[in-house]
């Protein structure tokens, strides 16, 4: 059971953070070659597929994370770095909720890559923190 939780946790951490890396380092620079309307259409097509995957990642990371915490690593309750991880995760969810409801759903697509950059920094910070959580 723990191994399945760890696998799903790692898989969906990869989907979210990997998707943000792709959006910023590979998709965004390629958009520069396109006209305004083509850019908007491509961004809408990509986000309409990526954002449901992010909501699923948030759900799976939370459920598997709670399962791993309370079912396997109860010692994390006394680990300040783990609470830093949870706080930064909450910030990432808030930033993504703003992206989704206040930008994407309102068609303000051009502002989204900058906020994805913020969440990517948070995600990489979580991976750094995990490296130091014993
Ligand atoms: C963006 C969000 C998150 C990312 C990128 C992330 C990533 C990771 C990674 C890579 C590990 C594996 C570390 C290892 O095996 O050494 C891990 C372990 C863990 N995560 Fe997360 N996590 C996230 C959110 C959460 C949340 C929200 C919780 C709790 C509600 C959580 C609880 C845990 C626990 C308890 C472990 C330890 C499991 C073990 O020792 O094998 N994580 N996380």
Walk me through the structure.
The protein is an all-alpha fold and 134 residues long. The protein has one domain (2-133). The protein contains four helices and no strands. Helix 2 (36-71) packs antiparallel against helix 3. It starts with a helix and ends with a helix. The model has no long low-confidence stretch (mean pLDDT 95). It binds protoporphyrin IX containing FE. Protoporphyrin IX containing FE (HEM) is lined by residues 6, 9-10, 13, 17, 61-62, 65-66, 68-69, 73, 76, 86, 89, 92, 123, 126-127, 130. Protoporphyrin IX containing FE binds next to helix 1, helix 2, helix 3 and helix 4.
Offer a quick outline of the entry.
The chain has helices at residues 2-31, 36-71, 80-104, 112-132. The protein has 134 residues and is an all-alpha fold. The structure holds protoporphyrin IX containing FE.
């Amino acid at each position: 059971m723990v191994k399945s939780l760890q696998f799903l946790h790692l898989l969906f951490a990869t989907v979210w953070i990997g998707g943000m890396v792709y959006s910023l380092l590979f998709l965004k620079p390629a958009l520069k070659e396109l006209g305004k309307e083509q850019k908007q259409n491509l961004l809408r097509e990509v986000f309409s597929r990526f954002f449901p995957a992010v909501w699923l990642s948030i759900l799976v990371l939370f459920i598997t994370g709670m399962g791993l915490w309370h079912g396997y690593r109860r010692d994390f309750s006394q680990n300040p770095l783990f609470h830093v991880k949870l706080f930064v995760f909450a910030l990432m969810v808030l930033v993504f909720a703003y992206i989704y409801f206040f930008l994407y759903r309102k068609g303000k697509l051009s502002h989204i890559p900058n906020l994805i950059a913020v969440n990517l920094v948070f995600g990489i910070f979580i991976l750094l923190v995990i490296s130091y959580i014993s």
